[in-house]
Specification:
This protein is of the alpha/beta class.
Length: about 400
């Protein structure tokens, strides 16, 4: 496509854009269980309107836009209140989980350097199930990654003893997930925290998925174990607003136990021809809309609204678990929040995935072990019965060999 010599009519372009989206997944119907967190049209409306109000403002300039600066402070304060942040805790809004994880690793590296560790040859220790964003950040900063096998007891949890054995004098961070993305399982953060304190190693909790879910699930009576700053060894956390915070993309939070730890994160640059510049996160320009939408959604929902939404999701997950188990599937581990993975001993996972795609369901799958994977939203309460019905039909087709040719064609 080349830029048109003359501008086109917006109404015509809008219609074309809507038409282009007809081939995308129909997430509004609830038939998508990855990428989008659908809390309903009312919250979508708040996201859209609140984002638009500050769409052109730039979070890079707090002096120019003190409104955004205050909204960011408010969001961070609410986050730390939910996650047992102690007095003096600090944080910032980022563009997403990868940004939050990258900045936490940057802070841990600079903290290590400032406290006597060598300038290079660092490593991080993390479970096999930890998000690949850690590898991406490690690649950018030339940090070695030591992935440790999970427990062998079928829990799909990180193995604290094995992780402790992998730590050495060059380790700048160890990682736990709450929950991990592949299986939806919360790692034993309290045990990891004890190791972090004993070895004086920075412990980061990746709560990108669970940071704005687990506190409300616990309020609703779900037996969520200690996973946040309640654990003394936790020095930083990542928690995504645009996941179970139901805020507009892209918005996440990176949080630190103290201002002293946080101060290793921002970039402060003076040695150039322009004015001195300080950027708290990886980005320079920071979309004001992402900040304002997060502030608005958190205030519209409040504790009671989040408790209601997360209660719906937990109930849907339990319904899906019971339904798939009745079909002969095995649920991996003991998920407590909104993610669930399950596999069938008599049906190939990718064949099932393909058969469900053919029925209009866009979900995900996990590689280790091969399993179907759902990231559930409140909207899925309306379609859970339809999903289980289609899964039963898909399972019958796969067992009969109906979907084999489709899978072979798609993944060969």
């Amino acid at each position: 496509m080349q830029m048109p010599p003359e501008g086109r009519n917006w109404d015509e372009l809008r219609a074309e854009m809507i038409a282009r989206g007809h081939g995308d997944v129909d997430w509004r119907s609830g038939r998508t269980a990855v990428y989008v967190f659908n809390a309903g049209e009312d919250i979508h409306h708040v996201q859209h309107e609140a984002y638009g109000l500050f769409m052109s403002e730039n979070g890079l300039g707090p002096l120019a836009f003190p409104s955004l600066a205050q909204m960011e402070k408010d969001v961070i304060s609410m986050a730390l209140g939910l996650l047992h942040g102690p007095t003096g805790a600090a944080g910032a809004i980022t563009s997403g989980g990868t940004d939050s994880i990258t900045m936490a690793m940057k802070a841990a590296r600079d903290f290590a350097r400032a406290n006597g560790k060598p300038l290079t040859d660092h490593n991080i220790v993390l479970p096999r199930s930890a998000h690949l964003a850690f590898d991406k950040a490690a690649h950018l900063m030339d940090i070695s990654v030591r992935r440790v096998p999970l427990k062998t007891d079928g829990s799909y949890e990180a193995d604290p003893a094995a992780m402790a054995a992998a730590i050495d004098a060059s380790t700048i961070m160890m990682v736990g997930s709450a929950p991990n993305f592949p299986h939806g399982i919360i790692d034993p953060i309290a045990a990891l925290g004890e190791i972090a304190v004993a070895k004086d190693v920075w412990l980061h909790v990746d709560a990108c998925v669970g940071g704005y879910f687990a506190p409300f699930a616990r309020m609703n009576g779900v037996p969520v174990p200690a996973f946040d700053f309640e654990v003394p060894g936790v020095r930083s956390m990542s928690a995504d607003l645009h996941k179970y915070g139901y805020c507009a993309k892209g918005a996440s939070t990176v949080l630190f136990r103290s201002e002293d730890l946080y101060r290793h994160m921002p970039f402060s640059l003076r040695d150039w021809s322009g004015a001195p510049m300080k950027t708290p996160t990886l980005a320079g320009t920071r979309p004001g809309g992402a900040i304002s939408a997060a502030w608005a959604v958190m205030n519209v929902l409040g504790v009671s609204g989040y408790r209601e939404k997360q209660g719906i999701v937990c109930a849907v997950r339990e319904k899906i678990e019971a339904g798939v188990q009745a079909l002969g599937f095995e649920v991996l581990g003991r998920p407590l929040l909104g993610l669930v993975a399950f596999r069938h001993p008599e049906a190939e996972t990718l064949a099932l995935y393909s058969a469900m795609r053919a029925r209009g369901w866009f979900t995900s799958f996990t590689a280790e072990p091969a399993s179907l994977h759902l990231m559930l939203s409140p909207k899925h309460a309306e379609v859970a019965d339809a999903y289980l019905s289609d899964l039963a039909a898909a399972l019958a087709d796969v067992k009969a060999g109906v979907a084999a040719a489709k899978v072979e064609a798609r993944y060969s």
